[in-house]
Structures are given as C-alpha cells and as structure tokens.
Amino acid sequence: MSHIIDSGHRKYEQSYSFYTTKGVSRLLADLPKIKIRAYERGETAAIDICLDLQKAIQLAKLTPKQKEAIRHLYVYDRGIVEAAELLDIDYSTLSRTRKTALKKIAKVYKRWRYLE
Questions:
Q1: Neighbouring residues of 85: CB distance < 8 A, sequence distance ≥ 6
Q2: Which of 22, 29, 66, 105 fits as disulfide partner to 62, beta carbons 3.0 to 4.6 Å?
C-alpha cells in the first residue's frame, strides 16, 4: 500500500505493506526519517503515519516483553544479538517475540482496512 500526499511543491510517497510483519518492520525502521518529515518539516502525511502507528501499537496490546523488543530493535536501533544480550534472553527468543509483536500490529492495520 502507498501513502501519497501531494501538497503543492511537497510530495510524500512511500510504500509499506501494513498487513505484513515485513511491512510493519520496515515502517518501524523508517520511523526516525518519518518523524523528521512530520515534526521538522510539518508534512501531514508523515504526521498521520506517526499518529496511526502509535495508535496501532497501543491497540495491539503488546506484552511488556514485546514492547521492550520493539523499543530496543527499532527505537534504539540495536541489532538482534545486542538487544538480546541487553534483555538477557536468547536471540531466537527475541526474534520470536519481535515477530509476534509485528503480527499484532499488522492485525490492527488489517482490522482498520488501512488506506483501502
């Protein structure tokens, strides 16, 4: 799915598959760039994406472990091995926790029928 907004000379265009773990992962990985576009440049499409993602995460009802996994991997931009060491868990456990969290977030977007 694409989120395209054209406001005069500014255009925001990026494709994310909001219904898949891979697409949600890509969205989370791009979040720092999206936040710059949203809050420093005032691009409304980017603001919408940030707010919608925040709400999707809230509605996904992630467990504390899933929230920590998302925080370490995407907010702090740590690799899976480093994040697993910091969380004192096996990296395969962290990988499964991450994937489950991403599935929950993707289900929220699907329930919303996001951008259809």
A1: none
A2: 66
The verdict on residue 112 lying in a domain is no
Is residue 97 a part of any domain in this protein? yes
Residues 6 or more apart whose Cβ sits within 8 Å of residue 11: 4, 5
Average pLDDT, the chain: 89
Instruction: Name beta bridge partners: 15.
Output: 2
Q: Does a structural domain hold residue 38?
A: yes
Q: Is residue 115 part of a domain?
A: no
Q: What is the pLDDT of residues 80-113, one digit of tens each?
A: 999 999 999 999 999 999 999 999 999 999 999 9
- Which phi and psi angles does 60 have, rounded to 5°? -70, -15
**Which pTM does this prediction carry?**
0.86
> Residue 61: which domain range?
2-106
